[in-house]
Design goal:
Elements: E1 4-6, H1 12-33, E2 39-51, E3 61-70, E4 73-78, E5 91-97, E6 100-106, H2 110-143, E7 153-163, E8 172-175, E9 181-189, E10 196-202, E11 207-213, E12 217-221, E13 228-231, E14 233-234, E15 237-238, H3 239-245, E16 248-254, E17 262-268, E18 271-278, H4 285-291, E19 304-310, H5 314-324, H6 336-340
Antiparallel strand pairs: 1-12, 2-3, 2-5, 3-4, 5-6, 7-8, 7-19, 8-9, 9-10, 10-11, 12-13, 14-15, 16-17, 17-18, 18-19
């Protein structure tokens, strides 16, 4: 895959970094350069015009006109700042351009405020990265490197992967035909800038393992039109690299009878462990029959029907979770390989 760039509105640390940089640059400019070479003097507020905000949540705009003397000549000008303490007739400090005395600036604190905001945002970004690194270190020290149970074959069975929606702390689960939960991931910690905390619960083997799952990220390819990379981290590692490291490969194709539906052949160390069909919200056949209507005819990301003889579901679960939490169509996190029949 070609080099990629992260969209700042998806990658929170990039968003914080960008906002802090803008605030710092604006604050430095307003504080040290905006009125550079200007001369300070006193001015009298002549009038304050209040312009109602266009939208209810916005603040009203205030146009402050002041009068001041330069070399015996009186000038009037509109300030570029406003303070609730301003009243008509009040004498305040201003600065004017000696080369163009009609240009006047208020002695506001906007620059200082911007610098403070920038420092706070930058501090929050650094704090979140340090906190994330510490959490990953504690995770590794306490539980070691992420491992999975060996592949064990049994009878062929039909299972269902479902995604809990409608809440920020959404999780995933694998159920059997009777609706019994066999494996699930429950979010234990919701956070905006650091990885989510999850408990991966294997109900069959009665095991619970905590994991740190990063936020979903969409990366734009810089060289190929329409190709994006979708990913997140699991315990600090890119999920697609993580799956490759543990022997997972996935072949994806469209269903011949349903052009919008995807079929996944999931292999572990070269041996097929599951055939998976994308599904609607109603992954159980009995639910489809009962629901009917359009919802059963449109595939929904995060819902799958599984056909497998695998008894240990942990690695299969993480594979389906990777597809469920992203918009990827293949096991590299991309999408054009399937759409255009090309290989990355």
């Amino acid at each position: 895959m070609a080099d990629a760039k992260a969209r700042p509105n998806i990658k929170f640390e990039l968003l914080f970094g960008f906002m802090s940089l803008v605030a710092l640059v604006a604050g430095i400019y307003l504080t040290f350069f905006h009125s550079k070479g200007f001369v300070k003097t006193e001015a009298t507020i002549v009038s304050i015009e209040t312009i109602p905000a266009e939208f209810e949540d916005d603040d009203d705009e205030h146009v402050v006109t002041v009068s001041y003397d330069v070399d015996g000549k009186t000038y009037t000008g509109v300030l570029d700042s406003y303070s609730p303490s301003y009243k008509e007739g009040k004498v305040i400090n201003v600065a004017y351009d000696p080369n163009h005395p009609e240009t006047v600036h208020g002695q506001g604190f906007a620059g200082i405020y911007c610098i403070l905001v920038g420092v706070v945002l930058l501090g929050a970004m650094i704090f979140s990265k340090v906190k994330e690194k510490k959490a990953l270190q504690e995770q590794e020290e306490k539980y070691g490197e992420t491992t999975y149970l060996p592949s064990v074959k049994g009878e062929q069975r039909e299972l269902y992967f479902l995604t809990d929606r409608g809440t920020a702390k959404y999780g995933h689960r694998i159920e059997d035909e009777n609706g019994k939960v066999l494996f699930e991931a429950k979010m234990t910690k919701f956070t905006v800038t650091t990885p989510y905390g999850f408990d991966f619960i294997d109900h069959v083997n009665n095991e619970t393992k905590p994991h740190l799952v990063g936020h979903e990220v969409e990366l734009e390819n810089t060289t190929l039109l329409f190709d994006n990379h979708y990913t997140f981290t699991i315990d600090g590692e890119d999920v697609w690299k993580h799956l490759k490291k543990h022997g997972i490969s996935v072949q994806t194709r469209f269903d011949e009878d349903k052009p919008l539906w995807l079929h996944y052949t999931i292999s572990r160390d070269g041996a097929v462990i599951a055939e998976v069909d994308s599904s609607s919200y109603h992954v159980h056949e009995k639910d489809e029959e009962r629901a009917g209507g359009l919802s059963t005819k449109i595939p929904v990301r995060g819902y799958y029907r599984i056909f497998t003889a695998e008894q240990n579901l942990d690695l299969l679960f993480v594979t389906l979770m990777a597809f469920a939490r992203t918009s990827a169509n293949d096991d590299t996190g991309g999408n054009y390989k399937l759409l255009f029949g090309k290989k990355k």
